[in-house]
């Protein structure tokens, strides 16, 4: 499987595919839609995608969150590709890009069901569980 990770641009075909993946995996199952506020926030972040034969199969975004910090948002992997390592490859790529631009720490509001995935990549819980979009989350952090 030849998976390519790269940073993608707002407005590109890959970005439109990212939005569709986020909607299908993260939003629609909760009855939530991507709204104008989220689209406006997208313009402040960096977007990353994993591609297989040109198709976006995973996505993630990093957003400024203070000096030397970024927040990981909307990490999603196509259901057929979950458990194949593509998510790990993409998050590793995004972290490398962040580190190269001077970022020292990444945090995320991880869904509790994904906690182990993040722990296996060096993230640590930083607080108690809380509900976000009606499901349990936990703040997780990683020093780069």
Question: Features of this protein?
Answer:
single chain; 144 residues; alpha+beta; Aminopeptidase; eight-stranded mixed beta sheet; 8 strands; globular
Can you describe this structure?
- This protein is of the alpha+beta class and 144 residues long.
- Helices cover 29% and strands 37% of the residues.
- It is globular, with a radius of gyration of 14 Å.
Short précis:
It contains 4 helices and 8 strands, in the order E-H-H-E-E-E-H-E-H-E-E-E. It is an alpha+beta fold and 144 residues long.
Blueprint of the fold:
Layout: E1 3-8, H1 13-27, H2 36-42, E2 46-52, E3 55-64, E4 69-77, H3 86-100, E5 105-111, H4 115-119, E6 124-125, E7 130-132, E8 135-143
Parallel strand pairs: 4-5
Antiparallel strand pairs: 1-2, 2-3, 3-4, 5-8, 6-8, 7-8
What structural category do the secondary elements indicate? alpha+beta
CATH topology name: Aminopeptidase
Whole-angstrom Rg? 14 Å
Straight-line N-to-C gap: 28 Å
**Given the structure, what is the number of helices?**
4
Q: What is the CATH superfamily label? A: Gcn5-related N-acetyltransferase (GNAT)
- CATH class annotation: Alpha Beta
**Biggest sheet character:** 8 strands, mixed
* Estimated helix fraction: 25-40%
Question: How many independent structural domains?
Answer: 1
Order of helices and strands: EHHEEEHEHEEE
CATH architecture classification: 3-Layer(aba) Sandwich
Total number of beta strands: 8
Averaging pLDDT over every residue, what do you get? 95
Low-confidence parts: none
Overall shape: it is globular
Strand content: 35-45%
């Amino acid at each position: 499987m030849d998976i390519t990770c790269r940073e993608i641009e707002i407005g590109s075909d890959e970005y439109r595919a990212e939005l569709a993946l986020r909607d299908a995996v993260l939003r629609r199952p909760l009855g939530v839609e991507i709204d104008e506020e989220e689209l406006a926030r997208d313009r402040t972040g960096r977007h990353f995608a994993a591609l297989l034969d040109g198709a976006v199969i995973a996505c993630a975004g990093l957003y400024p969150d203070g000096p030397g910090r970024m927040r990981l948002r909307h990490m999603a992997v196509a259901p057929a590709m979950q458990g194949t390592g593509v998510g790990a490859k993409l998050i590793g790529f995004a972290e490398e890009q962040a580190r190269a631009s001077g970022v020292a720490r990444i945090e995320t509001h991880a869904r509790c069901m994904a906690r182990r995935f993040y722990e296996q990549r060096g993230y640590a819980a930083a607080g108690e569980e809380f509900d976000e979009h009606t499901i349990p989350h936990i703040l997780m952090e990683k020093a780069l």
